[in-house]
Input
Amino acid sequence: MPSLRSIRGRIKSVKNTRQITKAMEMVASAKMRKAQMRVRDTRPYAEKILELMGRLSAIESHRPNIFFKVKPVTTIGIILVSTDRGLCGPINANLFRQVNRFMADRPGVRFEFVIIGKKGQDFVRRSGLKGVGFISGVKDRGQIEEILPATQVAIEEFQEGRWDEVWVFYTEFVSTLSQKPKNEKLLPIGPEVVEGRARGASPFLGEYLYEPDTTEILDVLIPRYFESVVFQRVMENFASEYSARMMAMRNATSNAKEVIYQMTLIYNKLRQAGITREISEIASGADAVS
Amino acid sequence: MAFMLTLVSQERELISEEVDFVKAKGVDGEFGVLTGHSPFISLLDPGELVVRKGAALYSYYVSGGVAEVLPKSVIILANTVERADEIDEQLARRARENAEEALKRPISEIERRTYLLELKRESVRLSIVARRRSSRHPGQVTEE
Output
């Protein structure tokens, strides 16, 4: 039988926890609103540049440009977008499970990682996988410059032929209640890269005039495409992180409430039992005296 | 006859609607687009983007990017965009002076190029502001 004092102590500590989770929930929900707006603002650019790359890939696939050339795959580079902090529900675990499944589906292929976020770093290290680049501390209102170290490594690996494909793994923000782990192939740019991702893309199969010329335009456009899509996915991941954290903290808060209720019940019962026992002791003592 | 114009930057979508005319600054010079233009793709220099819709003219500062022109649509993927009335004149003027000062000092070739670009950007910004002021209607720009 626990003592009254120890239960009182535990109620107090759970109340403290509840206060913390409540505060975290509110912080996450404020950040979530901003991150959602940012997702909405950054989506059009990524979508439009995907559409454009789609149209270009249809025309350019026959030209000797490495970024449009589909090669036999021996090494896949994965840009893993994860969170820096924990306490955000299952989104990282779900994402890592998807990475594992992805790798299991492709036996005989080597995988190398460029990681954004500390949790991804932990995962790659724990699983004994090979990471070639790692950045953390990207800000949720950050500029695209912050992720360039990661994308540049990836582009270089691809350009120099060490990677045959580049994929990005991140958690898509569907709604406040739902976040989905997702993977997308970014390089080489083939028709399937764009399919189903650029809504309402008008197909164009003619020839363009290029100003100044094809090579120069592609030299500018391809890194921009790659960077801006990854950047958008990072922003998407932030919205998912905050939503997941808010939900996780909301659950934790209501769990704490439930625990406090149950413990208060036990506490009151014990207290009442104690009082009853004391009264009966006094009464029987009084009987003995008289 | 109108066509669909989409003007997006990394940060936000500024225009997604039917317009009548667009003028932008490509790396090989300015170009104007009306409906039915033959398809082309051009890199953009820092410069002004003018959009005409009906009788109204709108002006934007674009820091560079890519324009894709199709017969019935134009997509402009800008690095950064400012609406003419968002340009901070004081800030632009100070930045230009700063760049001019820096160019007088002995500096490395890379720095020199950075400042030259900066100078160009700020000059374009200021010329947009100036033209806006000389026109009678705010938000509207006079064609040269």
Summary: The radius of gyration of chain A is 28 Å.
